[in-house]
Structures are given as C-alpha cells and as structure tokens.
Amino acid sequence: MVGNIAARRAKTRRGRREILKHEPKTVENPKVLACLRGHATSSVVNGVLKEFYSLRRPLSKSFPRKNSIRPFEAAGEAPLETLLAKNDCSLFMLGNHTKKRPHNLILGRLFDGHLLDMVEFGIEDFDSLEAYAVRKRSLGIKPCVLFKGDFSSDPNLEKVKNLLLDVFRGPNAREVDLAGLEAMVSVEPAKDGPRIVIRHHRILLKKSGGRLPKVELEDTGPTMELSIRRSQFAAPEVRKMALRQPKGLKSKKIKNISYGDGLGDTVGKVHVQKQDMKDLALRKMKGLRKGALKAAEQGGPVQKQDMKDLALRKMKGLRKGALKAAEQGEKDDHNDDDEE
User: Fold this and answer.
1) Beta strand ranges found along 128-213 (DSSP E)
2) Residue 226: is it exposed, middle or buried by C-beta count within 10 angstroms (0-12/13-18/19+)?
3) Largest CA distance in the chain
4) Contact predicate 111/242, CB 8 Å
5) Is 103 helix (H, G, I), strand (E, B) or coil?
6) Tens of pLDDT along the chain (340 residues)?
7) pTM here?
8) What CA–CA distance (Å, rounded) separates 110 from 217?
9) What whole-number distance in Å separates Cα of residue 38 and Cα of residue 125?
10) What is the 8-class DSSP label of residue 213?
C-alpha cells in the first residue's frame, strides 16, 4: 500500500525501513481490517465491530475512540485515507448510528492509498458469537467462503460479493491441510429486496467408515442480516488498474499445455503423425503378403492357396506322409465306386 508516507524522504535508518515497508511489492502483504467507530454508535453496531475484529485477528486493528468521519459526504474521504495510511490498513469497517440511518455499517477498501470501493449496510438482524453455546474457532484460521444464490443478476451485488470475499479470505495459502478446514462463512442474497445473510459455521470431520470423512456443519455465529443502502464503486479504468497482475506473477505460457480444467490439473496435447496401416507389425500370413495385397488392389485374380503350404503347427496327423496316405485312400475309394 502506497500513501503519503512513501512520498516522504527518510532522515534516519528507521525511517528508511518504514518507507520500504510501504513500497509496492510483487506479492503484497495480507490486508489488514480497521474497525472504526463513528461519532455515535449503538450496542448492535459495537457488537458487529467487535465480532469482525475477533474473526480477522491478527489481521485487524480496533479503534475504540469515536471518529467524526463521513466518507459518503464531500471531502469526507481525506481524513479516512490519512488514518488508514498511517496504520497500514487497506480494509475498513466504520459503524455509526443516527435517526435517519439506524445501525449503519460502512465497509470499504483502498487502492494505492485512495478509496476504491465502499458499501453502506443496515444491520437488520444480528446474533453474536456468545449466543451460541459451542466451542470457539481457533485464532488466525483461514475460513472457507461459500456464496449461495445468484449474485450475477445484479452488477452491484456482484461487486458486493467481491468486496466481502476480500474481507473474509484472510492470508494467502499455497497448501491446505484437511485438518485445518475448521471454519466456513456462507453468504446468501435474500429473496425479498437488496439484502444479504451472513452465517458462520464450524466444519466437523467425522468417521464415515471409508477413506473420506463425513462432513457436517455446526452453527457457531455470528449471524447477521444486512440490507444494502448506499454504495460507491471505482471507475472502470481505476478498477482495471487495481486488478492488473505484476509481470513477475504471470506464468509463462508453455506450448500445448493448458490449466483450464478448474481442478488444478495440467492438460497436455501430443501431436502424432499419420500412421500407415500397411506398416503395422501384424502376424505374417501368406494371404496378407504384398503380392496378394497388390493383386487385390488392382482387381486381378488371386491365386488359390494350397493348404499344404500353410505354416501350420506340425502335428502327427498333418505330416506329409499322413496327407499322402489320406489322398491315396480317397483315390482307392473312387476306384472301388467305379468298378461297382
């Protein structure tokens, strides 16, 4: 994250180290969530901020003091950007409570030290983690995120989905251990009106009698129902710049190899020249010799084959002497018939 800190000139070694932390990197640090309180809050808003802070730890920071920050108003983004740049946070959650907008919650993110997206929610229903008498999940666990329902019908709803995924995803992980899949977050759009329902579950792996375990889900909380109020999304050119991938992370394209099966498998293509079926190493029989094949192709007569010339297995009953005796016996039978 690059802000005003990176534009300053360091005078000490500690200052230079601090500036290096804020310089652009090929692989950025995990995003930190800042939980802020507005000028006036309610117990419901404070409970939501507390739950999100505990779920995101250690990638979250809590600011218990009240802040007169109104990001949707004119010139209201500058104090927010300064506060987040000072604390190296690229995600923020601001809660406030007024008569016009009760139990209000603003969720947003920054890019290059400036506000990128933010969405205002109204907390309709909320059940804290303490309302569920179950074992709490471990600290720093990366949850599975499940989006149920149709988010692609509304473009704004699809952007809200992308923002929530950025909040819940946590640190990047190259490998996943099956025993480490402990928590799951499910997000589902409500059928009536622009609302979403967020539920937290605990993944239980039980014995199934086979190789794969039996998976069950247990409600752990918190559970909340949020109604979408105001929203402010980035311009298309700014969003395109934010989604641009560094050259160092782009994999080089290898010829005849693809990775698009969706399961992480590598699929390759092998090109083989056309094979002549006449050159196949088949069983050598006289009926399939070159002379017989050429005669068949030219349409000429094929000579009758003598059964004596076939390379048959030498059995006692098929030797030359036995064949001659058999032929002589046939001739004698014909002569006897003629005399009669």
Assistant:
1) 144-147, 183-189, 195-206
2) buried
3) 135
4) yes
5) coil
6) 444 554 567 789 888 887 887 777 777 788 899 999 988 899 999 999 999 998 888 889 999 888 888 888 888 888 888 888 888 888 999 999 999 999 999 999 998 888 889 999 999 989 888 888 777 777 778 888 889 888 888 888 888 998 999 888 887 777 777 777 888 899 998 887 788 999 988 888 888 888 888 888 888 878 899 999 988 898 889 888 888 877 777 777 777 777 666 666 777 778 778 877 777 776 666 655 666 656 666 665 555 555 555 554 455 455 556 556 666 665 555 555 555 5
7) 0.68
8) 34
9) 20
10) P
Tell me which DSSP letter residue 32 carries.
Answer: P
Tokens of 171: 């640190």
- Tokens representing 307 are 């059964």
* Closest among 232, 192, 226, 224 to 104, alpha carbons compared: 226
Q: Residues, the chain, total?
A: 340
Alpha carbon separation from 330 to 170, 227, 308, 318, 324 (Å, rounded): 96, 105, 17, 16, 10
Task: Give me 26's structure tokens.
Answer: 């090929």
The amino acid at residue 153 is S
**Do residues 130 and 220 make contact, with C-beta atoms less than 8 angstroms apart?**
no
Tokens read off for 72: 């949707």
